[in-house]
Amino acid sequence: MKYLRMLGMGLIAALLGAALVQEEIAAQEQNPNAKKAASKGPPQKPASTTPPDMTNVVYGSDKKFNVIDLWKAKSDKPTPLVIFIHGGGFGGGAKDQILTQIPLDEFLKAGVSCASIDYRRLQSKPGPRQIIYPTLFLDCARAVQFLRHNAKEWNLDGARFACAGGSAGAGMSLWIGFHKDLADPKSDDPVARESTRLTCVAVFNAQTAYDPRWLKENLPGKAYMVPNIWQLVGIDCPPWGSPAERFDEMFTTLTPEKARLMEDCSPINHLTAAAPPVFLHYLGQPLKPRKDENDNIHQIGFGLRLKEKMDALKVECEIVGGWPQNPESTGPDKTDLEFVLRHFGMKQ
């Protein structure tokens, strides 16, 4: 516990990208499993210094958070697009995380444009300012539609869109990829008429479900006790570090409405044979976890459970674990760049 305090709030947030809503920040800082995740950290790329061509383009109703930055690859022909969704426990993070968490410059050099989106923050307390699922997820889906709506003007290939991101951003990327197409052809809003379909999804430290009942049944450890997965559906829960019995009691008082939201916000529950190919990166975690291996909210078990289901549906799911000097992979690609370029039909 003393070591966690020495890490400091700023360092943990930077390494984990897992800031919580304000009422849970202090509790999360005492999370011993969060310390484990911090030691692994999101995969850090050399920081890009390339400025975006367009900044803070508003795509939705919230002019502060519904904004996009866009980097346009130089090309005479429409370019494919990678859409980055930042992590931060649904309550924090920033779209400039794209500068260190995906190989931005390498994508641009290969002829792939990149966008980084922001979205409204989780506010779990009941009242007029409450923001819970599905609002945040639908913000991200609308950003995809908005970019597709403007594809011709911005020289983008609307048929080749991919989502990328880490942690909460990874989960929302997978949710968009697996969910039925959210296009509403009868809408008066031309953006809402656009498709949310993706060519592929390439993410790191992904959660593939946010239903704490699923987490307890399918994964080791106390991941199901992380407060923000309860808050995501508007449930007030004990602070991190409370006895497991207090969380277990909450399962007995779930209303049908909250149970439905827990199921619906979990990407794995939307998986079908029509899903796009998926690349999952869990830095520093072996493909065959040992008994004492990482059991936190970024554990590779999320990816392994998803791969089992995708393999059964014969949909490609590639997992990369291990360290950069000794990577372990279930497929032909070692990096997100290789995977995305392959599915865009491009060469590195």
Gist of the model:
The chain contains 14 helices and 9 strands. It is α/β, with parallel strands linked by helices. β1 and β2 form a beta hairpin.
Description:
The protein is of the alpha/beta class. It is 32% helix and 15% strand. The chain contains 14 helices and nine strands. It has helices spanning 2-7, 9-16, 25-29, 32-40, 98-101, 104-109, 135-149, 168-178, 212-218, 227-231, 244-251, 256-264, 301-312, 336-343; strands at residues 54-58, 67-71, 79-85, 113-117, 156-166, 200-204, 278-281, 317-323, 326-329. Strands 1-2-4-3-5-6-7-8-9 form a nine-stranded mixed beta sheet, with helices on both faces. Strand 7 (278-281), helix 13 and strand 8 form a beta-alpha-beta unit. The longest helix is centred in the middle third of the chain and has 15 residues, at 135-149. It is globular. The N and C termini lie far apart (45 Å). The model is unreliable at 1-41 (pLDDT under 50).
